[in-house]
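Why do we care about 3D structure at all? Because function follows from shape, and shape follows, mostly, from sequence. That is the central idea of this module. The next example makes it concrete: a single protein chain, its amino acid sequence, and then its structure expressed as tokens.
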Amino acid sequence: LPLTGAQAQASASSSSNRYRRRRGGGAVPGPGPCSDRAFLGRVAAATSALLLLVLLFRGGVRTGSPNTGRSDNARGEMASNGGGGRRIETSDGAPLPLARFQSLTYALANADLVALYFAASWCPMSTPVTRELELSFEQNAGPGTLLPPGDAGIDDRENRWPLALVYVSSDRNEEEMQKYARDGWITVPYTSGDRNDIKRHFRVCAKREMDELGFERRMEIPSLIVLDGETHGVLTTDGVGDVKEYGGEGALEHWVELRHLVRALEDKYERVEEEKHRKLEPQPQPRII
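And the structure:
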């Protein structure tokens, strides 16, 4: 059910207060490059949500694009599997959008959120972001937060980890990649075709790679794209900004709330579509005796 005006205002106030608090309990700083960027991001997100709601009620939404990890004819369906999980399937029963990337299978199958980190050891802009990720999710997040690397490929819906961090390297060779990857990161193998195909899919790479990969990039490195592990949908492409603004714990909470918001919008759309189809079904005629 839609929120009342008072409920929406209280929810927005609560979220704003929670995500603007600083690590260590200090005061919120005045306007600056980081806070301005986060504010603009929140305005853009709110605007997008409002537009999506309008389209939902008009019944004209078709979710997805090649770059968001959703197919154009995707539709949400509840899957009654072991953990009561949720799965998005295309109308013709095709695999999930990122299923073709075998190097992502383990992370997507075992984590609620999957953060794809596009970076390189030679990139000076990557260094502070890498340090923040290492501090936030490896040292301060606590046990049970970050999915450990592995190759079991277990699809355990009942015991998903909160977050998987996958390193998509732009390093010059495999040795550089292995030295730069931190403990707890899942690395896309350097020699795997997935490494460049994932960059093409999301259109993010280093400038020096553009000619080799053959596409016009939309994002540079470092970039952190956060996905819903179950639906493969993109929750945010500004994970770097989130980590800088909120810190690791606050960013993780923010991504969880984004996931809940997207799920709620999808569920509302499904209900609207079901109601519309129900009204179009022929109704039984009363028998005249």
